[in-house]
Amino acid sequence: MEKMDKKTSQIFRDSGFNLCFFLLILFIVPSFFLENKIFFIAEVVCAAILLIYHRTAVNKRRKALDKYIKESVINQENLSGSLMLSFPLPMAVILMENKSIVWANERFTAMVQNVHVFDRPFTEICPTLPLNWVTEGGSVFPNDITFGDRSYSVSGNLFTMEATGMRGLMSVLYFTDLTDLRAVSREYADNRTVIADIVWDNYEEVAKNTPDSSRSLLTAHLDEAVNAWVSAEGGIMRKSERDRFLLLFPEKAYAAFAERNFDLLTRVMEIPSESSMPITISIGVGRGSATLAENMQAARMASEMALSRGGNQAVVRTGTNYEFFGGRAVETERRSQVRSRIMATVLKDLINDSSNVIIMSHRVADPDSIGAAAGVARIAMECDKEFYIVLDRNRCGCPRIVDSLAAQAGYENAFIDAQSALVIGSSRSLLVVVDTSRRDYTEAPELIDSFARIAVIDHHRRSAGYIENTAVNIQETVASSTCEMICEMLQYVVPVDHITPVEATAMLAGIILDTRGFTVKTGSRAFEAAAFLRRVGADTVGAKQAFQGSARDYLEKTRLAGNAETYREKFIIATTRSDTDRAVAAQAADNLLDIYGILASFTVFVCDGEVCVSGRSLGQVNVQLILEWMGGGGQTTSAGAQLRGKTITEVEEELRRCIDRYIESSTTQV
Description:
Elements: H1 2-11, H2 15-32, H3 37-73, H4 81-85, E1 91-95, E2 100-104, H5 106-111, H6 122-125, H7 132-135, E3 145-147, E4 150-161, E5 166-177, H8 179-190, E6 193-200, H9 203-208, H10 212-231, E7 236-241, E8 244-250, H11 251-259, H12 264-269, E9 281-287, H13 292-308, E10 313-318, E11 321-326, H14 337-352, E12 356-360, H15 367-382, E13 386-390, H16 399-406, E14 415-416, H17 418-424, E15 430-434, E16 453-458, E17 472-475, H18 482-493, H19 501-515, H20 524-535, H21 540-545, H22 551-562, E18 565-567, E19 571-579, H23 582-592, E20 600-607, E21 610-617, H24 623-628, E22 633-634, E23 638-643, H25 648-665
Parallel strand pairs: 9-10, 12-13, 12-15, 13-14, 15-16, 16-17, 19-20
Antiparallel strand pairs: 1-2, 1-5, 3-4, 4-5, 6-8, 6-9, 7-8, 10-11, 18-19, 20-21, 21-23, 22-23
C-alpha cells in the first residue's frame, strides 16, 4: 500500500492548507533569531499540531474514498488495494467542481503514457472528452476517444462523498479499449458484398446499326471494359445475358467507384463503334441489406429506376434510399409504335377490369396533367366506366381548360376532391396517376395507400419516393410530355371521331407547355402527336389562350425577372420574397431563357408557405439533376423543388452550391 499512500498524499493536497503552512514557516524562521524563544517554541508547536491534524484528515478522507471505490464504484466487496489498482479497466475519479483528477489506477496512468495526472485538470489529459455529458444524464460517451494509437469507449457516473470532507459532485470514468473491435468492424464493413446489375441500354439500336462482322468485337470490347473496371478494385463480373452483367465487389470498392462518379459510364461511351450512337449503360447497385438476396433485389430495382430515368446513369439503392450518378447524356428518342400499342391495350384491359377510374395528377395541375387526365377519361368512357378527376380547383394552374372540360358532356360531375374520391373508391377501383411518379407530389398522397390497383403514366425521370407496387407503370423519359404519350395510346384504343375538340385542345396545350412551343425536347413523335390532335379538332388559338394570364400575373413575371442575377456566367437566378403563383414563377423561368448565353434559369419564390424553386433549361444543362440534389425532381429541361423549414436565403445559397457541384462534376464544359 506504499504506492497507494504516495498517491493519496498527492491527491489530497489542499492548496489553502499549503499556503497557511508556508506563511507559518515564514514567521518561524525570523522568530528563531529573536531573544524571546517562547514565541519560536509556540509557533513550532502550532505548526506540528497543524501538520498532524492535516495528515489525520487526509488519511480519513483517503480511507473513505478507498472504501467507496471498493464497495460502490467497483461494486465488489473485500477487495484489496492492490486489486483495486489493477482493476482490468482504466479508471479515474474526477472532482466535478474544478474538473481535476483526484484518483486513478495504474491502467489509467499507463493509458495516458504515465504522465503525472493527480490534481491536474482532466481537460489537459483528455481535451477531446468534455465532462458535461456525465452531468447531463449520459452514462456512455457517444464517441470513441483516442490515446496514442488506441481507441476507447468511455462510461461514467456521478456520486458524492460528503462524509470524507470532499464536498461536491464527483465522477468515476471507465475506459474500455475497443481498438481491436473497431478494426474487425471496419474490416467487416469494408468487405461486405455489394451487387451491381448493369444493363446495356441501347443494345438493340447499336446492334441494328453495326455490321455482323463487327458486332462480336464490339461486345468483346464492352465485356473487357466492364471486367477491367470491377477487377481493378477486387470485384468479379459474370455476364448473365447478352446485354446484362452481374458484378460482385466489396464495400470499399464501392467507395472508390462512387468517388469517381462511376466513371464506367464514360468509359463505355468511348468504345469505338461503327454505329452512329455511342454505347450507354445503366448501373443498378444494391448495398447495405442483410442478405445477398436482398442486395440482388435492390440492384434490380435500382437498374430499373436507372432505365426509367433515361439510362446512361448509375442508381444506388441502400435500404430504401436512392443515390444517383451520371444521367447527363442527351436522351435519344427510341420508343416504338409497338410499345405504345401494347401499353394502350394493357391500360384499356385494366380499366375494363375495374369498377371505376379515379384520375389524379400532381399538385397545382397544369395543361399537361389536365390534358393527360382528359385522355385517360376518354379511354374510360370508351370502356363505359365511370371516371373522376381529383383536383383542387382553387389551386389549378389552368382554370380555362378545366372549365371547358367541365362544360362537356360526360364531365359534369367529373372533378372531385380527395375526400370524395375516398368515398367513391372501392377495392376494384383503378387509380391512374398522370404526369408524376412521386407520391408526395400528387394532389392527394393519402389516396395512394387507399387503392390496391394503381397505374402511373409519366414522362419525368423517376426519382426517390416514386410510387411502388403499381399494376401498370408507363414511364417514357424521352417523351416531350405526358399528353404526347396519351395521344399515341388513344390512336389504338379509341376511334378518332370519339375524341372531342375540347379534349384534343387540352392535350395540345399540354404538349405546347412542356416543349415551350415546340422548341425544347421536341422529337418527331411530338410533332406527329400534335398533327393528330389538330386533325381531330384541336384549336391552336384555344391552346394558346390557355396560357394567357391576368395583367397582375404579367406584371409579377416582369417584376420577378427584374430581380434576376447571373451566376457562373451561364446560369441565372431570380428571387422574390413575396407569395407567388407556381405557374407565374415557372413562366418567368421560361422567359429568362430568352437571354443570350443563358443555358439554365431558376426562380426562387414562396408559395403556400413553402420555399419553391422552378428550373428550366435549353437541354445542355440537366436541371433535374440540380434540383434532385435539393429534394426535387422533374426532367432534363424542366424541374422543380419544394423545401420546407428553410428561408429564401438558405434555399438560394443551397441552389448555388448545387450549381457549383454540377459544374465541377461535369465531364464537358458548361
